[in-house]
Design goal:
The strands form three sheets. The chain has an eight-stranded mixed sheet, sandwiched between helices. Helix 2 packs parallel to helix 7 and helix 3 crosses helix 4. By secondary structure, it is an alpha/beta fold. The chain has two domains: 92 residues, Immunoglobulins (Immunoglobulin-like, Sandwich), CATH 2.60.40.10; 233 residues, Alpha/Beta hydrolase fold, catalytic domain (Rossmann fold, 3-Layer(aba) Sandwich). The protein is built from seven helices and 18 strands. Strand 3 and strand 4 form a beta hairpin. The chain is globular, with a radius of gyration of 21 Å.
Length: 352
């Protein structure tokens, strides 16, 4: 008996089909194609020609969680038009979910759900209007006495402000943790991480440093005021956190570590560590009197991640400078499998 994949995307007419043993069957209408391959989580498999342009492939049982795939047709990569759950931006891939025997924290469960709000705001740092997504928790009350804690959650280089919800499932993770009583209700803002237009990278050798500088300015001077003016959120460091993955981990380090009077809780997942020149420019703020306001600096990285060595070196530097932090080394590489695991860990540590 097949399981309907992607409960929140049932209108996709069901490709792929996830079976009870957690294998998945993929179908593709290939027309006159000579070869069709399935690229499933970076492994390539030849699909079987069923005749009349129909191709199919059934995988081995897959681990529970969210997986991505794309078709390769006569050498050209093609997304699945029968599955509307697509991770988009620099690279696009379809996604599907293999449910756990018991519901995973990333799964849509029968619990109260929060609301996602899409915002445009004027950014002085960038010089144009920018987008952000804001999550408010179930039962959000803008008139309650106590402001909600706030998390700024930053995405990676190849994504946009939608990545943490479309692929990372941050809203469902948060819903499920709140319902389980493991975290308190909070507001999350997810900004777009490229205030410096990405097109400028083609002619600029210092895109990363310029984008980092603008992102820090945008968060502090534009994003936070927008959120504070629209939502009941805390304005003190001990009730504000910042975290991110890859490039966004670098953004959380640059913004949070150097501004402990703004963010007392900092998380960096598989982080693109800022250059030494950034440290030299900000060491006084990192180590200064405000550093005592820092509650947690949490770093996590998989041992197969291409940024692992950089994170190990950063850990050594933090130890040398006497900066309190936690460095969690896990299995895994530079992908959403680990980031969807790191976020609930960080959420359960913050605001304690």
């Amino acid at each position: 008996m097949p399981i309907v994949a992607n409960a929140q995307y049932r209108s996709n007419v069901g490709n792929p089909t996830v079976h009870a043993d957690k294998s998945a069957t993929f179908h593709f209408d290939g027309g006159n194609a000579q070869t069709v391959e399935l690229v499933l989580v970076n492994e390539t498999y030849a699909m079987e020609n069923q005749g009349e342009g129909k191709w199919s492939f059934t995988s081995d049982p897959l681990p529970p969680g969210i997986h991505d795939y794309i078709f390769r047709v006569d050498g050209a990569e093609v997304t699945d038009k029968k599955n509307r759950w697509v991770k988009t931006w620099i690279s696009s891939r379809n996604q599907f979910e293999v449910p756990g025997d018991t519901p995973l924290v990333t799964e849509e469960q029968a619990v109260p759900h929060g609301v996602l709000h899409s915002h445009y705001y004027r950014s002085k740092a960038a010089g144009y209007q920018r987008k952000a997504i804001v999550y408010t928790p179930p039962g959000y009350d803008p008139k309650r006495d106590q402001p909600y804690p706030l998390l700024v959650l930053c995405h990676g280089y190849g994504d946009d402000e939608s990545a943490w919800t479309v692929t990372g499932r941050a809203h469902l993770i948060t819903d499920n943790l709140i319902a389980a009583g493991k975290i308190e209700p909070l507001v999350i803002v997810m900004p777009h991480g490229h205030p410096e237009p990405l097109e400028s990278k083609d002619w600029s050798d210092d895109y990363a440093s310029r984008n980092l500088e603008k992102m820090t300015s945008d968060i502090l001077g534009d994003l936070l005021p927008m959120v504070e003016s629209n939502y009941l959120v805390a304005e003190t460091a001990e009730r504000r956190a910042i975290a991110g993955l890859s490039m966004g981990g670098g953004h959380s380090i640059s913004t949070g570590l150097a501004n402990p009077h703004v963010f007392a809780w900092v998380g960096a997942f598989s982080a693109a560590i800022p250059l030494d020149s950034w440290w030299d420019d900000n060491e006084i703020d990192i180590l200064g009197d405000n550093a005592q306001q820092r509650k947690l600096f949490w770093i996590a990285c998989g041992r197969d991640d291409f940024l692992y060595d950089k994170n190990v070196q950063f850990d050594a530097k933090l130890n040398e400078k006497g900066i309190s932090h936690q460095f969690v080394q896990t299995e895994g590489a530079h992908n959403w499998y680990v980031w969807r695991d790191y976020l609930p860990q960080f959420l359960q540590l913050a605001f304690r």
